[in-house]
Amino acid sequence: MTNLTHKSVSIDALWEFGSDFHYLPEFMTEITRELPWQDGNLYSTGRGALIELIEFLERNCEFKKDQSVIWIPAYTCYELAKPLVENNYRVAFYDGSPSSDWNLPDKLFSKGDIWILCNYFGSVVPGRETTKTAQDYGVIVIEDHSHAPLGVLSRNSNADYCFASLRKTLPLADGGILWSPAERPLPSSKTERYDPSRRVAAMLGKKQYLENGTFSKEIYRQWLTEAEEHLGNNIHLNISEFSKRILTNLNYSQWNEIRIRNSNILAENIRNNSSFKIIKNLIPDDAMGIVLHFCNQEMRDTFRDYLINLKIYTAVLWPLHPSVGFDLYPSASDFRSKMVFLPTDARYSIVDIKIVSEAISHFVGEND
């Protein structure tokens, strides 16, 4: 492993950056707050919220499973489409991605179809400008705000419905939300709550490992894998009491202020170069992290391997799935093959962010 140093501090051997949330009680307060989505319904996952909505629309005869199509952007997490495909819904993809200039094509939709748009990184919702045209034609418009459920784009949505996975950006064991900006009826909340015990144990184990190394990394990582599988089999239950308590006691102002600070520091301390460009967030205060777009996939993969050796874990969003047929969607395929995501959430101190920026600068110096 490359030696990890920082000019102002000595780096603990247990230090790492990225991957799953650990338990973060320091962001909890004694004050119980109202949830930001007062008229929304909570679920164990965002995809569960979507499934519940579609089944609700089907029961109300607003969506016909055997006739209508669910349109999903090709650049998205396939776990969103998977339960729909497995339940024999008619799913189709379109070439939606952060880099596409996608607009509503003529004759793409039929009346009664569902059109899902994605809020990418809290910055842009491709196709949103044609939302009203689709709605006037009888299309049900749904937006996925998992990247910024509290951001400007989610608050200003004109979609019929919105949903989000809350555990992508908040330190929860589970959690999804469904709401309607158009104030349309929602399905009833589930009574059975998700049991998050395996993930909570993993979050506590990771916290102990990072603090003093007295818990096995192999064990908490195994528990995280098992928890993910368990959650995947229970996607449409009500949110757990554990995660709901965090939602009602989380200091959102502190959480968001640190995230914004970290995003700004990282963006200011790395520069565009021949290897990659920084994708500027159109709404800086809503950035869930920093996105780098590389000149080619080989350089992107070299960069990721370099950072892994420093225990800096980046993400590629999202894994390709053969059923999507990515050759048909060049914008989505190209973006995915060349991008890297760096988290900047409130887990990380200024020193953490500067360590990452120095590591990236060193890579650039060797490869520019």
Chart the SSEs and their pairings.
Layout: E1 17-18, E2 41-43, H1 46-59, E3 70-73, H2 78-86, E4 91-94, E5 114-118, H3 131-136, E6 140-144, H4 152-155, E7 161-165, E8 176-179, H5 197-212, H6 217-232, H7 241-249, H8 252-269, E9 276-279, E10 289-294, H9 297-308, E11 312-313, H10 330-338, E12 339-343, H11 350-367
Helix pairs in contact: 1-2, 5-6, 8-11
Keywords, separated by commas or semicolons:
alpha/beta, 368 residues, 7-stranded mixed beta sheet, 3-stranded antiparallel beta sheet, 3 domains, Aspartate Aminotransferase, domain 2, Aspartate Aminotransferase, domain 1, single chain, 13% strand, 36% helix, 11 helices, globular
Describe it.
Helix content is 36%, strand content 13%. The chain is an alpha/beta fold and 368 residues long. The strands form three sheets. A seven-stranded mixed β-sheet has the order 2-8-7-6-5-3-4. Strands 9-10-12 form a three-stranded antiparallel β-sheet. Strands 1-11 form a two-stranded parallel sheet. α1 packs parallel to α2, α5 runs antiparallel to α6 (217-232) and α8 packs parallel to α11 (350-367). The longest helix has 18 residues, at 252-269.
